[in-house]
Amino acid sequence: MTSFTEDLAINLSLTIDGKAYPIDPGNIKSLKLDLYSYGYQGEVSFVVDCEKAADTLLTPITTNDLIEVSLKVATYVNNSQDTLTPLSLKGLVTSRYFTEQLLNLPAGKEVMLLRHYHLVFADPAQVLWKQHYPCDLLVDSTLKALITAHTPTQITMVYNWDAVLSVYYPVLSLSLGTATNQASFYDYLIWLVDSNNGVFSYDYATHKYTLSAAKTKSGTALSLKHEEVSGYIVNYPEVHRYLPNVLNAYSENPQTTAITNAAVTTKIRRDFIASYPIAADMTARVTLETARFNQHLHEVNLEYEHFQLQVTPPGALVNFKNSNLWNKLSYIQAKSYRVKQWHFSAQVAEQELTIDLNMAYSHYVMEHSLLLETVAETCVPLPPYIMPSYPVFVEGKIVSEKGADDDMTYQFYTDSDTSVNYYKVSIPLWAKKKVRADYQPNQDGGQFYFPPYKNARVLIRLEFNSAYIDSFLDWGTGTALPLDSQGNQLVMGVSATSQNIIKHNYVDSKPELQIQRTQDKDTELLQFSDGNILLQTLQKT
């Protein structure tokens, strides 16, 4: 990496508990910034004079209050004929530490000369959402509503992805508080973007985040200055040699759909397998994987020997066309690019920790580089992330609108679009929201038909955008038998006055079998016991 030395104006201000603490530019000793299209990380150090006046920053910076960072960085020049565009950042501090320089005087007197503070900071989404691990449930809602519900005031979102974010789902769940989950809400958001072929970007001019369907190609491209750049490297990434295949494991309509890859090598493939009972879901997955499959285009790594007069952060469009110093024979000269990454580090040239008050700049040793991608590049740079762990298990109670409130009726509903049947289950944890749970035999074989009855306590398995009845958590009313009977019984019906019971138990250590029908005041009983068969009809008066 090329290093160079020149003057730099760094304006830093900290806001703690609503109060601003500006730092003298001459006292900033180091700065490191790594900017990406989705956000940034930074480190800054500065000294505070403690000899001439009390350090007013010590008390607020050592509390647990949120520390906001406002930073502007620009090259320092006098009477420049060029337009200066500084880098402007706003962020939050994640960690901090400081050292102290003391002086021991005669007679045991001690003097605090200065404190050297170091702050690590980043964009608000990384700082806050990486500590956010919620479990949540939304019904008949959208991903936009889910994200908005978990967006603090320090984060401003722009939504431009209606095809994904504005779709209404019967169920949307967050599983980030489960014991097996390691993913934060930030991981969840990046995973959501990656798995749906979207774009998550940070605008360094407005300090806003955008969720969009594609990268923007709009804007005026800035021609980079040849005299600022020390050299460049053109990089071509590895080519995808596999054939993507989407596999539908649904037994009633198994399918394999291949996605075209002109650079495929025979027998090399990547399969995406799932079960899609609904044909439209299979079609949607093929469309998604087709859109996600792209060969990466070349990139250009620029090394600088001067700090940019006009800073071009990630997302900015640039080219090499408006300067005669760029050789027209060069590979990059006629092409258009977008800034993908922006890296910078600066260390004050004078290593001694001196106090420079009322200085608008300092002399720094710096390293500076940019990574460019072509404007036609569709692959989206995203930070590393942990995939959220599903399912999350919660308790629910079966809903049925048939019969009286205490009747053990069952009811399923039919989706008007897909003709798929489902149950409704009330989830007490989340204000008794009613989730849609697929109508399935669960653990029963196909020969058994025992739909869960009203108010049955069940364990619900919540997936990303679906729910299933996993198991049953209690016995039905009147189903359990005393311990000493060592019995079993099957109770079928809507209430104690309208039901059929098949019961096996032990009487005097001998097995007894009963089949009983009850309807209002009528009871019919067929009973098999040791040496006896009883057939009985009773009508209560």
Question: In a nutshell, what does this entry contain?
Answer:
The protein has 541 residues and is mainly beta. Helix content is 9%, strand content 45%.
Write the layout of secondary structure elements.
Blueprint: E1 3-16, E2 19-23, E3 28-36, E4 39-49, H1 58-61, E5 67-75, E6 87-104, E7 110-122, H2 124-129, E8 135-141, H3 143-149, E9 157-160, H4 162-165, E10 169-175, H5 185-195, E11 199-203, E12 208-212, E13 222-223, E14 229-235, E15 243-248, E16 255-258, E17 269-274, H6 279-292, E18 299-304, E19 317-319, E20 336-348, E21 362-374, E22 392-399, E23 413-414, E24 421-427, E25 433-438, E26 457-462, E27 467-472, E28 488-495, E29 498-507, E30 510-519, E31 522-529, E32 532-539
Parallel strand pairs: 9-12, 13-19, 15-17
Antiparallel strand pairs: 1-2, 1-5, 1-21, 3-4, 3-20, 4-7, 5-6, 6-7, 8-10, 11-12, 14-18, 15-16, 18-21, 19-20, 20-21, 22-24, 22-26, 23-24, 24-25, 26-27, 28-29, 29-30, 30-31, 31-32
How would you describe the overall organization of this protein?
With 541 residues, the chain is mostly beta strands. Among the domains are: 3-123 and 303-309 and 340-368, no CATH class; 238-292; 392-472, no CATH class; 483-539, no CATH class. Helices cover 9% and strands 45% of the residues. The chain contains six helices and 32 strands. It has an eight-stranded antiparallel beta barrel with strand order 1-5-6-7-4-3-20-21. Strands 22, 23, 24, 25, 26 and 27 form a six-stranded antiparallel beta sheet that branches. It has a five-stranded antiparallel beta sheet with strand order 28-29-30-31-32, with no helix packed on it. The protein starts with a strand and ends with a strand. The mean pLDDT is 93.
